[in-house]
Write a structure and sequence with these properties.
Elements: E1 7-10, E2 19-25, H1 29-36, E3 37-38, E4 49-57, E5 60-70, E6 81-87, H2 90-102, E7 106-107, H3 112-119, H4 125-136, H5 140-150, H6 153-177, H7 188-217, E8 219-224, H8 231-239, E9 257-263, E10 266-272, H9 282-297, E11 300-305, H10 312-323, E12 329-333, H11 341-347, E13 353-354, H12 363-374, H13 389-410, H14 415-433, H15 439-446
Parallel strand pairs: 1-7, 8-10, 8-11, 11-12, 12-13
Antiparallel strand pairs: 1-2, 2-6, 3-4, 4-5, 5-6, 9-10
Helix pairs in contact: 4-5, 5-7, 6-7, 6-14, 7-13, 13-14
The chain binds guanosine-5'-diphosphate and zinc ion (ZN).
Guanosine-5'-diphosphate binds near residues 248, 253 and 275.
Length: about 450
């Protein structure tokens, strides 16, 4: 995979912007660009300089461009890199890329620039993955987590853990050479204390995944409640657009609809659901089952009630059912515009939020309550959060291996067994940052990138 041929791709999105950037990377990047560029001799210019000129295909002037030069190893990929800023025309871009290919470049594979950055040691694997997350981030929170990971916060912690383990591994392996003499270079008490300490850090990282995942992918919030209480209307109001279908006929929302909104920098994924009720309608029955499933998986439930349909006792019993799911929930009484004061007074007993989804009353208070319930604001953004399932799995395997080390010490097993489990732990830590990687793993990670990244 570690080719050093020169690759080319459009690095900016196709669309309506004014400018597009075509990126070349590889040993011949600058010489290839120089062959089609009319202006200064690019091969004689220093790194990190920008040059104006034209791109020519024979006598044909394809465009006036700016060319940025990055001389190896001071570039994103660690190779010679040229970025050509052109006018954003599909035709111009296509012609220039074809021209560069005719002069010896090759069309880049998805993620190949970042793959090269990884292979050339410009970043570790978790940082490369963070580049993809960063590009995909849609909220302040997800941006911050990705940025933290890309800048190496997570990598640094892992690096320290690895170094500590490697030190002990080497002491233990030294014992193997002296096995006849029954020496212990690595103090067992110290080793055990170190492993406990490392494991507590690893457990903390594993524990951060729930929060990290929520920040990266959005907080899943289910809007539940009986048919016609106003779930779809509330979702529309929250999204500020006519996304879900609103109607007076009970059970119109047959399937679940999801959409995202950004509240104070935190992404919430709202899930509208079919009403909770028993039904003979087959399609709708499926919807109800899915609703219960979604409610169980949600991070937060908005339970919407409508006193026009149900009295206080009924609402209380519905709320009791929701409470059994053990998912944080907010009880919201809708259609406050239709309520009489004595109804409001009776309902105060269940401490709901009163809103009118239709008239947009109480919606800001509801948003604040959602933020309060997910409790992400106490989050210290300097904390490293694990957001990637691959990383969590590797951390869990590391933890298992370290538990075996601890048991081994307790049972006074021989050094060779301890060494084996420590190596296992190191192996799994190395999988995260890429000290240990296979072509399949790299393929799997980088093929999810877009071309040009
Ligand atoms: P769902 O079945 O729970 O999704 O309920 P819908 O959102 O489809 O709403 C059912 C009916 O209640 C519609 O006619 C809405 O216009 C109406 N509705 C929703 N919110 C309010 C509200 O705050 N006040 C009043 N008066 N009607 C509402
Ligand atoms: Zn609905």
């Amino acid at each position: 995979m570690a080719n050093n041929d020169t690759i080319v791709a459009l690095a900016t999105a196709t669309g309506n912007g004014a400018i597009a950037v075509i990126r070349l990377s590889g040993a011949e990047a600058i010489t290839i660009a120089n062959q089609v560029f009319k202006g200064k001799d690019l091969t004689k210019q220093p790194s990190h300089t920008i040059h104006f000129g034209t791109i020519r295909d024979g006598d044909d002037i394809l465009d006036e461009v700016l060319v940025s030069l990055f001389v190896a190893p001071h570039s994103y990929t660690g190779e010679q890199v040229v970025e050509i800023s052109t006018h954003n025309s599909r035709y111009i871009i296509e012609r220039i890329i074809q021209l560069l290919i005719r002069h010896g470049a090759r069309a880049a594979q998805p993620g190949e620039f970042t793959l090269r950055a990884f292979l050339n040691g410009r970043m570790d694997l978790s940082q490369a993955e963070a580049v993809a997350d960063l590009i995909a981030s849609t909220s302040a929170a997800s941006h911050q987590v990705a940025m933290q990971q890309m800048r190496g916060g997570f990598s640094n912690i892992l690096k320290q853990l690895r170094e500590q383990l490697i030190q002990f591994a080497s002491l233990i392996e030294l014992e193997l050479d002296f096995s006849e003499e029954d020496v212990e270079f690595a103090n067992r008490g110290q080793l055990s204390a170190l492993v406990v300490e490392i494991n507590s850090i690893i457990q903390k990282l594993i524990g951060s995944f729930e929060q990290g995942n929520v920040l990266k992918n959005g907080v899943p919030v289910v809007i539940a409640g009986r048919p016609n209480v106003g779930k779809s209307t509330l979702l529309n109001t929250l999204l500020n657009e006519e996304r879900a279908i609103v109607s007076d006929i009970a059970g119109t929302t047959r399937d679940t609809i999801e959409d995202e909104i950004n509240i104070d920098g935190v992404m919430f994924r709202f899930i509208d659901t079919a009403g909770i009720r028993d039904t003979r309608d087959v399609i709708e029955a499926k919807g109800v089952a899915r609703t219960r499933e979604k409610m169980r998986q949600a991070r937060l439930i908005i339970y919407l009630a409508d006193p026009q349909q149900d009295d206080r006792a009924e609402i209380e019993s519905q709320v009791a059912e929701v409470a059994q799911l053990n998912v944080p929930f907010v009880v919201v009484v809708n259609k406050v515009d239709l309520l009489k004061q004595d109804q409001v007074d009776t309902l105060l007993a269940i401490e709901p939020l009163f809103i009118s989804a239709k008239n947009k009353v109480g919606v800001e208070e509801l948003k604040h309550e959602l933020l309060r319930k997910v409790n992400l604001h106490n989050l210290d953004m300097d904390d490293v959060l694990v957001t990637n399932i691959r990383h969590v799995e590797a951390l869990r395997k590391t933890e298992d291996a370290l538990q075996r080390v601890l048991q081994g010490i307790d049972n006074a097993v021989t050094s060779d067994f301890l060494a084996m489990d420590i190596r296992q732990a190191l192996h799994h830590l190395g999988e995260i940052t890429g000290q240990v990687s296979t072509d399949d793993l790299l393929d799997n990670i980088f093929s999810k990138f877009c071309i040009g990244k």
